[in-house]
What does this fold into?
Amino acid sequence: MTLHAVVPDPALSLVRGLPLAEEPGLGDLTLSGFIREVTARHGPREAIAQPRPDGTVERWTYDQLWDRCMAVARALVACGIGKGERVGVLMTNRAEFVSAAFGIALAGGVASAFSTFSTPHELDQMIAASACSIVLVEPQVLKKNFVAIIRELEPGLDRCEPGALRSLRYPHLRRVVSLDPADAGGGVESWGDFLARGDAVDPAVVTARAATNAPADPGILLFSSGTTGKPKGILSAHRGVSIQLWRMRRIFGIREGDRVLTANGLFWSGQFAMAIGGALGSGATLVMQSFFQPEATLALYQAEKVTVPMGWPHQWEQLAAAANWNEVDLSTLRHVGESSPLRKHPTVRTDWQEPPRIYGNTETFTLSTAYATGTSEDILRGGYGFPLPGMTFKVVDPFTGAILPMGERGELAV
It folds into this structure.
């Protein structure tokens, strides 16, 4: 099927993508339905490869990923989470981020993902603005200890039991969960104890809760820096997020058996959609790396036979300058654009075409327009992609909202 744009009136600056119903490859349009569908479809295949600090690699099949998501969901039910209730996720790229995000959805909650680049002031603003009742935290991230930071922001955590916090600063917050048991104590519960709470919850209760999720329900809350530098929350419905998760395999040409590694945080919409959606929606493996470090990233490409590296141009430059650049075997890399420094590595052989002209933002949960990989060069010239199915673009007068004639300057409305 050839996807294209619809221009109702050539005289006006208005263009639409095809009706969403005509987009190929879409599945269930809730986060809970997405994870159920992909794990059922790809069960025994490897879903996640997670290097651990001791040098081992923890591997989850799609069946195991489902079990981990259900474990989080059951624990949240045991903690009393209600429909639409927000649960904070403050983690680097790791397997637990994925199980947390989808486990929250299965329990009927809304994942609120916080950047691990946040300052204490920014984290304070995000916890308050999100109105989270629970925050799931990876404590030690480089030089920061986020559990210690949250304790400093809310000293009451040192004087209560898990689930019993009563805070004037964060009136909805009841519980903080630490992935590292060494940082537990007081109102901060260890990850293991948190998950154990769910043992008494019948999985059928989670299934019944997940069935109540509707595409129009709030699905995930992300934060961007905003134009003022103050974190700005963007609440996306299940429908919008799920559409993006499903379509990434088509736009980027990701296939079953590929191995995807992103060097950027899953708490940003682009990486959540492209990496998680592109990998899991295709039956590929999502290879985790918590921090971008050029030499370690190159070594991981080789060790895990990565085929789809995701990152930003400045990171590609750092990889090319890494000390082990000439020592690693990158022959498995397939998704390397023509302009990427990775294409110049002596072991890389690929003719993959990177989607070079795309447009989107957090408000649309990443892409609004795109040319999929493999698009003819004749079509690529002079544009930033066709509007994706279900999308409408218009150029309007910023004062009146009227659609302007084609060619006139105005405000772009998506």
About this structure: The CA atoms of residues 111 and 231 lie 16 Å apart.
